[in-house]
Amino acid sequence: MTEFFAVLDISFGIWFACFCAVTLSSFIQRLSGQAFGIVAAPLIALVAPQFLPAGLLLLGISVGLTSTAVDISAINKAEIIPGFFGRALGAVLAAMVAAQITDVDMIAGLTGLVVLAGIALSLSGIRVRIAPVSLTLAGIAAGLMGTITAVGAPPMALLYQHEPAKRSRAMQNAFFFWGMCVSVLALAWQGLVTGRHLVFALSLIPAIVLGLSTSMPLARRMERKALRPYALGLSAFAATTLILRLILSH
Q1: What would the pLDDT profile of 66-123 be if each residue is shown by its tens digit?
Q2: What is the C-alpha to C-alpha distance for residues 36 and 28, in angstroms, rounded to an integer?
Q3: Single pTM value for the model
Q4: Contact 200, 5 (CB under 8 A)
Q5: Sequence ranges of the domains in the chain
Q6: Is 151 helix (H, G, I), strand (E, B) or coil?
Q7: Calpha distance 23→161 (Å, rounded)
Q8: CB of 64 closer than 8 Å to CB of 173
């Protein structure tokens, strides 16, 4: 066990904090179709920013695949194509930018800013018509945000926030899964995915299992209940802390 933490170069306490963050975010992602990155990324950035974004994106693949499979019948295939195209394009552009960022604290600070921007979008109440153009543009924005900071859900969440719960959850989970895959591939193309990222992600798979399995019995019961204020409040606190820490350290 000691050798394991030596490989990751973190303590058990830091690893356990990441475990709790991934469990909570997986739980919320399954129930709402969003929030895995917006909850987990700022929390992990507070204690282990060196594993962002690749470590969290690798974990997101498992969350997205499982969550998408549950509501696959509600996915609209016509809406998938433009959103997938935009997400892939955004990921490629973002990976080239990410390759130029070598400061771990800068990644953490950017994560905080993106999370706050995502929260602002979620609370804006703006209605955007779901169409090929809006799906493509939202996909590009999600690709840029998600590949650099592991927080790419807000643009798609904005499009689907007024849709029926099952449809909204299914579409967002589908875009989430695809986004995690293309972002990881884009970062790997730039040499930004390492063995430590993979070990970190694999060690936290049980946290995903715990979060998703706990959410299953509650999925129907909590469809109409507001998880969002709690998730956004926690994310806002963590994001603000990240930004303040970056400012004070420079």
Answers
A1: 878 778 888 999 999 999 999 999 999 999 999 998 888 888 888 999 999 988 887 8
A2: 7
A3: 0.89
A4: no
A5: 2-249
A6: coil
A7: 23
A8: yes
